[in-house]
């Protein structure tokens, strides 16, 4: 399933839209006005951006760090760089100067393209402004499917972020998601609630709709999340994508209405379904959304190293309590620590075969170093713990490096959190380990909402074995989340420690 040479990611993404030049390719939605880009205007701007970057002195193979906000400059710079053979490195605009400087240590960029008021790394590379993107159009640089196209960083939620090198073929592999997750159609209007720099938004929210000739809808920078429901209705979104927290928030706001109002006319009449990724989707949110809107949320599991590979879809919804099925064309396995396959029904590590066209070229460690793809035999071990059922549906148990240890047991935090899902007056929760003394460790639950410890204890009594039940409960105003809406488990440990020092 690998495309033949020559193959350039940017040229591929823009090709479908050329058949409908007057159609809207991108709408950046603000509360007062929206910015619209047609399929005629978009490729012209990308080709001009490519010419501007080359005129600024960048050459094929150079690294270009993107320090841009949630506006049109981001996709133009990203695709323009790839069109010119330059390697873009998207980074979150929320990163601080020390954080982005640390990223540069792994692979110093030849230049930095930065918007106003965004922190810059403390390095000597030249800094370009978005004005450089207004260049003279150039021809697409000849590349092959296995050539380096772009670099992204892992979230670093369990350690130092790693630079992940991806080939041009990675965008071709995303076609497996069109039916295996999205049910994507040319006439779709897909609204993604994340920032452009997040790989979930970049792929699901921009590249895939464009490659299919659909319309991408993205909130403008600074948009209040409380307005997402209104924006989705006003702009006729047919698919809504985001992290689970987006759907939780919309349900709380009554847009769409709460389950008890489900007989009212739905406020999102064009919506076909939602897409969730980034962290586990609680069963209660999926059920409440279905009851309130009459539409489903289809979840996917993926990672920076291989995008998504397990998912439910409109054609094959995931059974309750499961994340979904292997997308058609994926070569996945559940293995032990040595890479040996395990039978269905056995917990193990999810692995991706090296032949998957969406799998990264490898991690980059140091300037000029070739990407390193760590393999066990022919498999890349993802670190995700799963159980595959006889019907092919997968249960997701969490990251191996996120397992909690208490009383000699190793326990997946998602198992504990799922058991609390639906508890009265509980908004959200996260399991963690506390160390009352250097010699002891106990399970704890951080949570937000009006629930009290006695009610939570009663709720869990018949839902978890004794050794999996929290021994401490810490109420927080809110759980810490990264800019993309995902739970930040590293920050959670710090927030809980501070809360225990100074209890309310």
Structure description:
The chain has about 500 residues and is of the alpha/beta class. It has two domains: about 280 residues, Rossmann fold, CATH 3.40.50.12780; about 100 residues, ANL, C-terminal domain (GMP Synthetase, Chain A, domain 3), CATH 3.30.300.30. Helices cover about 25% and strands about 25% of the residues. It contains 13 helices and 25 strands. The chain has a nine-stranded mixed beta sheet with strand order 2-1-10-9-11-12-13-14-15, sandwiched between helices. Helix 2 packs across helix 3 and helix 9 crosses helix 10. The radius of gyration is 23 Å and the shape is globular.
Brief rundown of the structure:
The protein has helices at residues 9-15, 41-55, 73-83, 97-106, 169-173, 175-182, 199-211, 228-234, 244-253, 283-293, 413-420, 453-460, 489-501, and strands at 24-29, 34-38, 63-67, 87-90, 111-114, 127-128, 148-153, 163-167, 189-192, 215-219, 239-242, 273-276, 296-303, 307-311, 325-326, 332-335, 348-353, 362-363, 379-388, 394-399, 404-406, 409-411, 426-434, 442-449, 472-475. The chain is of the alpha/beta class and 504 residues long. Helix 1 crosses helix 7 and helix 2 (41-55) packs across helix 3.
Task: Please mark out the parts with pLDDT under 50 across 5 or more consecutive residues, or reply none.
Answer: 256-266
Instruction: Estimate the helix proportion, in percent.
Output: 25-40%
- Class inferred from helices and paired strands: alpha/beta
End-to-end Cα distance: 57 Å
CATH architecture type of the largest domain: 3-Layer(aba) Sandwich
Helix count equals 13
